[in-house]
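Summary for the funding panel

The consortium committed to producing paired sequence-structure records for every protein in the target list. Below we show the first two records in order, beginning with the earlier of the two.
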Amino acid sequence: MQIEIATLFPEMCEAVLSESIIGRARAAGHISVRCWNIREYTLDKHRRVDDVPYGGGRGMVMQADPIYRCYDAVQQDIGAKPHVIYMSPKGRVLDQQRALELSVMPHIFVLCGHYEGVDQRILDEIVDEEISIGDYVLTGGELPALVLVDTVARMVPGVLPENLCFEDESHFGGLLEYPQYTRPAAGAAHRTPQKHRRMAAGTESGGNQNQTPRPLCKLFGQKIAVFFVGFEQNMQVHQFEKIRIWHCCHVSQRLKVKGRKVLSTRRKFRKKRKILQKAR
């Protein structure tokens, strides 16, 4: 996989991408990440890349010409059209599924905006999609680009020891990862739960390492929480029940749990929770 980052601050990006797992993957040749300085593609003797927006307003807008020349240089260098992503707070919020889809693309061109953003003509002509890392605004697109590269690159073959390293984690299958503990069992603050100490003993004696039940809880929207309660052994879910709980729990709502209708009042939910806790 080849990732090209167009930015006004290539040193900032290189400082992060040269370290840890991504840095080792680059050195081993599993991925290629290059940072392109947009200032090198301006014809202005002062290397100016921004100007005031038409119609007035505060801030500066990155000019279209230097960005397009940078993009054209990348395109000529790799001999193909890359998938162009513009990091923008107006874009689609990045999630694990989209990161997985991007990880199989051969060439990605990430454009980092700055100031008040980039000239709209660039977005209309070369950008394939806009991606955001959250509903907030940063001073530039470099930090979001680093987040994007990290989450995409770690799913490229060879970057991590095996696929299970990223498949058995939060959000990959729509679930959240189980709690993690390590030695010593009795730390400065609290002791490791007894069941996890028993699992550690089983692992040392050749037992199953994947006995920790996953907390199967994820929020959808602001008012509904969907709790997936199941039992997992050898990464296979044997029993799966779905309970939908409304914040306004005093409102009666008939829902389905494995084909059976239940009344999701506070009293009914407490009873169901006790049954599930005993079963666990």
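The next record, for a separate protein in the list, is shown here:
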Amino acid sequence: METVLSANDLCVGYVCRCGVSPIHHHLNFSLRRGELVSLCGANGAGKSTLLRTISKLQPQLAGDITLMDKPLGSYSEKELSRTIGVVLTDRALTGGLTVEEVVSLGRQPYTGFFGRLSTEDKELVKNAIESVGMADYTKKYMAELSDGERQKVMIAKTLVQECPVVILDEPTAGQDYKVYTEIMSFLDELNKNYGITILFITHDMHLAIEYTSRAIVFSEGKCIGDDSVYKILANNDIIEKANLKQTSLYTLATRVGMDPEKLINSFIQTERSRRHGS
């Protein structure tokens, strides 16, 4: 399977007045086309810093990042905006814009800052807003929306960028179960139906099990795990070092001698059937 994003001997952190402050050293990992991968680890482990670095929002301190067979540093801002979509937890200063206006900004890599939207562009914006369930909010201002609604809008904006890679910083943080499942179901559909490669941060291991095939785990400046979520959960050393929490179903299965993967998959399928009324 084709590699779309890779890091080789990567060092990430911050440059400040007193010098360089590295967080991660000698990181090596890759994302393959069509993967949906979770990035896990304790608070303060530098997961958000890594996402900001691989999206070129802050410079790498050392090592190499390759995106679609090209060095990340060789991308212009426009090229990068067409290749990697980013949804961070930072609240963008968009309160004075409507939902439609914010999502339309996702077409800037194709129209330019002052470019007019074509009929096709407008249709893409309309479809993206509808696909995240925000059609009734098109003319509402961002300042009027809840956190979950704003998150949906930012995902729609990323969608109209038509990027092959999307990264998200805790897309479901602080959301209720309904919004949580809506956001993740939509990302799952993007991945399965369009082959978009998705990397997102989460602390929720049940979410990681349900939606991702692989988890990359960080602790104390190093990658300590890169495997299927079930294998990560079975490794007590990784769980302890990264301060991850076993899911209750995984714990139950191991206590009663059942296969955790079979039990959890059965539960997930039952829940999905219930949500879809079948």
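Regarding this second record: The chain has a mean pLDDT of 89. The chain is about 40% helix and 25% strand.
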